[in-house]
Amino acid sequence: MALASTAAFAAGADYAQWALDIGGESGEDSSRAASGALSYDTGSSNRGTRWGASVSALRAQGDDAGGTTLETTSSAAAIRFGNDVVGGSMEFDSTRDEDLRKSRRWTGTLSLSSSGWRAAVNLSTRHTDFDSFDFSSTSAGRIGQVITISGVATCSLHDLGYGGTVGYDAAKWSVYASGTVYDYDDAECEFDVDVPESLRRLNRDRFSRFADTFLARAASRAGGSMGQSSGLLDQSFGAGIARYWATNSLSFDYAHTTDEFGGATQGNYSLTASHDFTLAFAMRIFVGTTDDEANGAVPYGGLYATMRW
Known about the structure:
CATH class: Mainly Beta
CATH superfamily: monomeric porin ompg
Number of strands: 17
Mean pLDDT: 86
Structural class: mainly beta
CATH topology: Porin
Number of domains: 1
Shape: elongated
CATH architecture: Beta Barrel
Strand order of the largest sheet: 1-2-3-4-5-6-7-9-10-13-14-15-16-17
Largest sheet: 14 strands, antiparallel, barrel
């Protein structure tokens, strides 16, 4: 889940401020999502280090090929610090994919800024518990006969994420590029029947084959742009450019993700326009398209409102 970035936080107002950001989106494939975030920071960016904290929640829904509605919920909390040169954050998020898994993740970020240039690196650690699922496995017996074992499996998985962002901010425009790769440990499984010891610890390829029907549910997660960063990804890359005026801004962003299980790829293009009506109220509207092999191009759009006090 995306909370306010460390770099954006360090460049914020000079006074203490609360902010509430709420909105949602809907896709042509019947996907829909809503999210909200509440944040506070101490200001004083020109007089030293400033601190901030935020909490957020997301709920996304999408229909699978059979018309069954599947739901993803996610929540996050973060603390941040920063000044004109250096910043950092620590975030915890929890994600629940209905009938698939529950994940808990910690992410630490360190950022540096100088003469308009900014760079950030982040490291995350995540533990995922999959829902129990039925399995059937075959193995060769001692005298050549084939033995079939069936039962219920409960598996868990741990991964590390390594990411970074580089960008440049000018008075009226900005650009950035980012990327994250993930390294997964072997899946650890428990069973309600006796199984060969080799099934209790499975690498990615063996786990994908062993739980292929169960993991296929991941392909039916809600579409659109929300929730992509909390998925079980192999890698993700993005880039964007923005133009600023006195009270308006326009930005174009592209993101590309690859799933860890199955290797499905998705491209996401979005165009966002925002307007500050007052210092206390702003709105942004966005349209975009997700594109993947399973669903093709799916347009979506959404609206957000931000209130500050």
